[in-house]
Structure formats: structure tokens, C-alpha cells
Design a protein that fits this description.
mainly alpha; 4 helices; globular
């Protein structure tokens, strides 16, 4: 289950980064899309930390940063929040944190 946790979080980081790169190609380089790529890269790097307590704390910070970026993106693009999207994102992050806590930490 440890490997499944690493793979799920790694895939999530890669897909989030890919979405940022696609957004670059569509709209040009913007700070928000750059931050999505930067944070997702940070998530990938965090998975390779040998100190599991530090990895756990940094993943929580990365997930919080992704929430803030997603809220900013929603407000900028749509002018409002899509609560269902943020609830699903929050639940996915909670599952990831629970998996890391149970199997890795």
C-alpha cells in the first residue's frame, strides 16, 4: 500500500503540473499557471524526502497551496467559486493525507 500511495500522489502531481503547462500553451505564461507547475514539482520532490515527518508536513503545505491556487484560479476565470469542485479536491487531499499518515509516516 506504500507504493500505491506514492504512485497516486505522484500521478496527481504530474497531472496537476501538466494542466499548468497546457494552460501556459493556451493563455501564455501567467503567474498562476507557473505556480501550479512549481507546486506540483514541489509535491514530486517532497515524495523523495527521507524524513517521513518532514514529507508529511510538506505535503500538507503543498495541498494547502494547491487549494489556494485553485480558489484564485476559479475566481479569476469564472468570477466565483465552484464549491463542488473544491469539496472534491479537499476530499482527495484528505484521502492522500490519510494514506501518507497510515502507510508512510
Amino acid at each position: 500500500m506504500v507504493m500505491v500511495t506514492y504512485v497516486l500522489i505522484g500521478l496527481y502531481a504530474i497531472l496537476t503540473g501538466a494542466a499548468g503547462v497546457i494552460q501556459w500553451k493556451e493563455t501564455g505564461v501567467q503567474v498562476r499557471s507557473f505556480l501550479f507547475v512549481l507546486v506540483s514539482t514541489g509535491m514530486l520532490v517532497t515524495l523523495f524526502l527521507p524524513n517521513k515527518n518532514m514529507m508529511f508536513a510538506l505535503l500538507i503545505m503543498v495541498f494547502l497551496a494547491l487549494h489556494i491556487l485553485a480558489i484564485m484560479e476559479g475566481l479569476k476565470k469564472k468570477g466565483r467559486l465552484t464549491y463542488s469542485h473544491h469539496l472534491v479536491r479537499f476530499l482527495v487531499h484528505l484521502i492522500f493525507v490519510a494514506l501518507v499518515f497510515k502507510y508512510i509516516n
